[in-house]
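Q: Could you write out the predicted structure for this multi-component system? I'm mainly interested in how the pieces pack against one another.
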Amino acid sequence: MAIASQDYEVHALTIDYGSKHSRELESASKLAEHFKAASHRTIKIDLGIIGGSSLTDEKIILDTGKKLEEIGKEIPSSYVPARNMTFLSLAMGLVEVVGAEKIFIGANAVDYSGYPDCRPEFFEAFQKTAELGTKAGVEGKPVIIESPLLRLTKAQIISKGMELKVPYELTWTCYSGGDKACGKCEACLLRLEGFREVGINDPIRYKD
Amino acid sequence: MAIASQDYEVHALTIDYGSKHSRELESASKLAEHFKAASHRTIKIDLGIIGGSSLTDEKIILDTGKKLEEIGKEIPSSYVPARNMTFLSLAMGLVEVVGAEKIFIGANAVDYSGYPDCRPEFFEAFQKTAELGTKAGVEGKPVIIESPLLRLTKAQIISKGMELKVPYELTWTCYSGGDKACGKCEACLLRLEGFREVGINDPIRYKD
């Protein structure tokens, strides 16, 4: 979104990591099409083989009973071990092949500080690692990792998206899986709170 | 190998990344069994979707015409963009789930300096990133990345393996694919040179 607004040629990368909410893959495709991405690749990787998260492991129940104010106090069961590190590594590979200058990732640290791999210091360290471990870095063309949503509140993200004409009806946030959003998981609670604060209706459908 | 010799409980992780030399997967299973790994997982991930390497991209020809002394002068076509970063990220996820203390990776920087992600400074930076981006790191139990072969020559690696009773007949190095090793790719040249220097015969079969 921010990317398309900055006149970059966008190469979209989706990771199908075996999450329960695979409905987001459909949204990713629609958004890549909407924003006229120069390319869109989906890499399949079954993180369920590693497990350890309520998003990928059938045996771990997703928490849908939290109150908004409880979110972010501790690392939640939906934390997928080393997920953003894996995603960024794959993106770094793509960057080298298409010759991109930047990686944009939509991580957010403010509302949701429970995930260690959504913190600014993690992204800074990753960028340093990538400079040392990639051909581009060695050749003096290090890639910049941009996380434009990192320090925004959920309400600020919604506002920014409205300004940039994001088709929110094509987006997906819910962790529970299914055709309609559950409205109860941590991801839904934060999304709904963002829309509520801005005072507009969320256009996606929720279960009754 | 070194791991089993140090009395660790070993959780083996193989990444089936869509390389042409998938024969190595069979070797990985046999070695995990031989060394009585506590578990052995194989994660499939098609890096061919990203491409950019003669190991994963059908359109890029593997170089089998190099002389031994030419190896390591530049980043070879067999460099898989951001591969070790991706592998280590996946291993880091597994570490968090099984509660491991260390990751062992068989990268080697001395004979083969062409790969940026086989350099000591890359592994150091990655470890720092992992400390910041994982639950284990945040909880003060950072994982140590060990690369015991990093500074050994290929001959020293072969010698060390002999000492540790590595069943070399179960190992695989060739990049070309097929049932017998080609003896011509960079990986074969370096392996054969290691055996030659130590003065023992390589027990695997090579094409005539």
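A: Regarding packing and overall arrangement: Chain A has one domain: 2-198.
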